[in-house]
Amino acid sequence: MTQDTMTSSEAEQTDDQQTRPTPGADGLVDRADDSESETAADRTLIEARDLDVYYGDDQALQGIDMEIPEKQVTALIGPSGCGKSTFLRSINRMNDLIDIARVDGDLYFRGKNVYDDDVDPVALRRKIGMVFQSPNPFPKSIYDNVAYGLKVQGKDDDVDEKVHTALERAALLDEVEDQLDSSGLDLSGGQQQRLCIARAIAPDPEVILMDEPASALDPVATSKIEDLIEDLAQEYTVVIVTHNMQQAARISDKTAVFLTGGELVEFDDTNKIFENPESDRVEDYITGKFG
Ligand SMILES: Nc1ncnc2c1ncn2[C@@H]1O[C@H](COP(=O)(O)OP(=O)(O)OP(=O)(O)O)[C@@H](O)[C@H]1O
């Protein structure tokens, strides 16, 4: 049957089969071949479509539409309680762990809806790692902190090399090379956070979600984390929640502004948001008139 002789629904189905990526056994779609002509920044890796999140009867996010580009830093900003962390957690289904949380709408990762029944949330979180607000190393050695995720996943080969690479990528190796057997808890706050970043990247995820990763750190440690985030975006897609607008302006390529009520008011290139936002409410927020 040719396209001409098909009914429109048959044609749609065939188009859909051609464009929809084929998931693997964990329900997810593997990393694309980088030989394609478009650059990573042109590719949408994560896409929210009409996404609502509720905690019991309270709606925390309303109809979010957002396309997050690959290998870029996307910042989520907005006043307290506007749903930034809720959105971040919806990307790797961490909200599943909150009993009263419920998600409606679609969240695609490489074109596959992560809320489909055939997606394994544990496999999803391997591809989409997370770093939290307070550094939370395990009470283990520096080495074991980073090796932990690899061992849990049964990635037992070349552990030494992978631990070294992750510490190097997290800009920590030079400072801890001679003390890999010391406790992770003996490091400074900034070093502990870089250790947590090394732990998150050791299993080689594609995305790193960061929930205010520098808010507990002093200015010097914060500056190191900011430099690191910009470097990480060469290899990974980074989505970061921050209360610090200067930080968002410094390190992100795209900025999403959420406002009270769980609404995404504007999403655009970071320069545009900070220099010439479309929305008066966004302008008022970023110029400090409220929030
Ligand atoms: N586990 C939870 N149970 C019930 N309600 C929650 C839960 N987590 C968040 N909420 C509510 O959802 C709304 C959005 O919270 P969220 O933490 O996502 O906002 P936020 O913008 O990240 O805030 P902040 O900047 O203060 O961290 C708030 O009203 C909050 O009280």
Automatic annotation (TrEMBL):
Pfam families the UniProt entry points to: ABC_tran
Alphabetized GO MF terms: ATP binding
Residue ranges occupied by any ABC transporter domain in the UniProt entry: 46-286
Biased composition (Polar residues): 1-11
UniProt key word Transport: yes
Compositionally biased residues, Basic and acidic residues: 28-40
Region (Disordered): 1-40
Superkingdom field: Archaea
UniProt KW ATP-binding keyword: yes
PROSITE patterns found in the cross-reference section: ABC_TRANSPORTER_1, ABC_TRANSPORTER_2
Protein name per Swiss-Prot or TrEMBL: Phosphate ABC transporter ATP-binding protein PstB
Gene: pstB
